[in-house]
């Protein structure tokens, strides 16, 4: 009688570029699977768990399976055939959800070897799925050669691990930065969308800007640092105060546009977590439409470090008024299904509590203002093109998104036949004074 072990994973020598592995069996995702995953990951978006909301408030008309569940299934299916022998799963280079997945859909996974490199012994692979709904992704494995560092009789038995390790992770990607200190989605998307950002992103209402200027007592003898300044949408509004304006921006394409748009500002390369400023050298730190990208505790510590005693922190966002049906539809059209939406990370977050929790700032004052940006079809499309997740798409996928936005402008009952209309916003600013001795 023979004992036959099923191979679990493969070694470096086993892979050749172009090889395709079809993983079996597939998995049908049930409503119970989706709800359990949402509970385990604390994802409470009603798109996944509220039937009435999905049927009445979304373009899909039914619940969408949370995207990370689909991705996790695809990755898991590949382990016995591909990565069971891997030393490390090094990276996920890209991840794209081509279409939404619904309850009852069956997931299948396929791996294609894209390349292998002797140096570092790394094989790269791409995942896709037969139904066309699940994500395609590109990433890298670190694989040993067969028998690497082990004699045959020293190799550990399958199924009996000799050690286990764990590492912290950021489940939704927020606040994750790369080695250069920039969130990868921000670096990729905004690096490609600086022109669209400058052309289409809204400004900030005068009432909120004036509140910041007054709270920080900005004047010719004062200094303000506008962090993650982008193309200078807020920066240019601080210049009339007479204060010296420093604009810190990590993305090169944005810095170039910023220098052209606000020539009187001093433009600096740097990140919120490592500001290129000496201790206690500025009277105010402002962050507009960007704090949600940061490693927030580190960024608050840096803001406190560079602020002079009594200095002011101001965090602000323009929030789309989704009570307008066309605005809500516009946001839904930018991504397929449950693809992550960085442009909504800051909705519903109590940033006053985030600032308070740092212990570095005094009581938080909240300033709000409702207003609207006059737009037309081209401006609404440019506004969509400026969103990081849209800008990071390949050209065909980006064109598909913009076609959907154009169709919305021409067919939505609130917009049809109109040459110009208002894009409604609510701006919220959080103002606080740095505490001494922190």
Notes on the protein architecture:
There is one protein chain. The chain is α/β, with parallel strands linked by helices. The protein is built from 15 helices and twelve strands. It has helices spanning 31-41, 46-49, 51-57, 67-83, 184-192, 194-200, 206-216, 235-238, 252-261, 296-306, 325-333, 351-358, 377-385, 388-391, 395-411; strands at 20-28, 88-97, 106-117, 122-128, 135-142, 223-227, 244-248, 266-268, 282-288, 307-320, 365-375, 421-433. A seven-stranded mixed β-sheet has the order 8-7-6-9-10-12-11, with helices on both faces. It has a five-stranded antiparallel β-sheet with strand order 1-3-4-5-2, covered by helices on one side. Strand 4 (122-128) and strand 5 (135-142) form a beta hairpin. Helix 13 runs antiparallel to helix 15 (395-411). It is globular, with a radius of gyration of 25 Å. It starts with 19 loop residues before the first strand and ends in a 5-residue tail after the last strand. 37% of the residues are buried.
For the structure shown, list the relevant keywords.
single chain, 438 residues, alpha/beta, seven-stranded mixed sheet, five-stranded antiparallel sheet, 15 helices, 32% helix
Q: Report the radius of gyration as a whole number of Å.
A: 25 Å
Please, how many helices? 15
Let me know the average pLDDT: 78
Low-confidence stretches: 119-134, 146-192, 336-341
Per DSSP, what share of the residues sits in E-state strands of 2 or more residues? 15-25%
Q: Biggest β-sheet, characterized?
A: 7 strands, mixed
């Amino acid at each position: 009688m023979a004992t036959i072990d099923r191979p679990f994973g493969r070694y470096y020598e086993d892979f050749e570029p172009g090889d395709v592995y079809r993983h079996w069996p597939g998995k049908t995702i049930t409503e119970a699977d989706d709800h359990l995953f949402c509970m385990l990951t604390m994802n409470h978006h009603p798109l996944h768990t509220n039937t009435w909301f999905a049927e009445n408030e979304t373009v899909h008309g039914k619940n969408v399976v949370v995207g990370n569940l689909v991705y996790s299934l695809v990755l898991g299916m590949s382990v016995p055939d591909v990565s069971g022998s891997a030393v490390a799963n090094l990276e996920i280079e890209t991840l794209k959800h081509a279409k939404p997945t619904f309850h009852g859909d069956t997931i299948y996974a396929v791996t294609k070897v894209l390349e292998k490199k002797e140096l570092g012994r790394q094989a790269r692979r791409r995942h896709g799925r037969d139904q066309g709904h699940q994500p395609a992704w590109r990433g890298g494995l670190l694989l040993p050669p067969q028998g690497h560092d082990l004699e045959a009789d020293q190799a550990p038995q399958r199924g009996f691990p000799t050690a286990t390790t764990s590492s912290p992770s950021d489940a939704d990607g927020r606040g994750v930065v790369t080695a250069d200190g920039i969130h990868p989605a921000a670096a990729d998307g905004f690096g490609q969308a600086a022109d669209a950002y400058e052309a289409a992103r809204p400004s900030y209402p005068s009432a909120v800007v004036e509140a910041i200027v007054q709270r920080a007592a900005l004047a010719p003898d004062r200094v303000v640092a506008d962090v993650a300044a982008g193309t200078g949408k807020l920066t240019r509004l601080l210049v009339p105060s007479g204060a010296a304006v420093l604009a810190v921006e990590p993305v090169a394409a944005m810095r170039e546009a910023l220098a052209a748009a606000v020539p009187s500002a001093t433009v600096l390369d740097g990140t919120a977590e490592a500001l290129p400023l000496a201790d206690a050298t500025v009277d105010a730190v402002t962050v507009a439409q960007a704090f949600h990208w940061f490693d927030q505790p580190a960024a608050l510590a840096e803001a406190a470090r560079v602020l002079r005693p009594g200095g002011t922190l101001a965090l602000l966002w323009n929030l789309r008024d989704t009570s307008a049906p066309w605005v809500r539809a516009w946001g839904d059209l930018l991504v397929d299904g449950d693809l992550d939406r960085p442009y909504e990370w800051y909705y519903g977050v109590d940033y006053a509590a985030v600032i308070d929790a740092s212990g570095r700032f005094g009581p938080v004052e909240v300033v709000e203002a409702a207003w609207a940006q006059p737009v037309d079809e081209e401006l609404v499309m440019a506004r969509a093109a400026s969103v990081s997740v849209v800008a990071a798409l390949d050209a065909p996928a980006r064109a598909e998104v913009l076609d959907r936005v154009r169709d919305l402008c021409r067919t939505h009952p609130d917009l049809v036949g109109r040459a110009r209309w208002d894009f409604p916003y609510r701006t919220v600013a959080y103002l606080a004074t740095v505490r001494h001795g922190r």
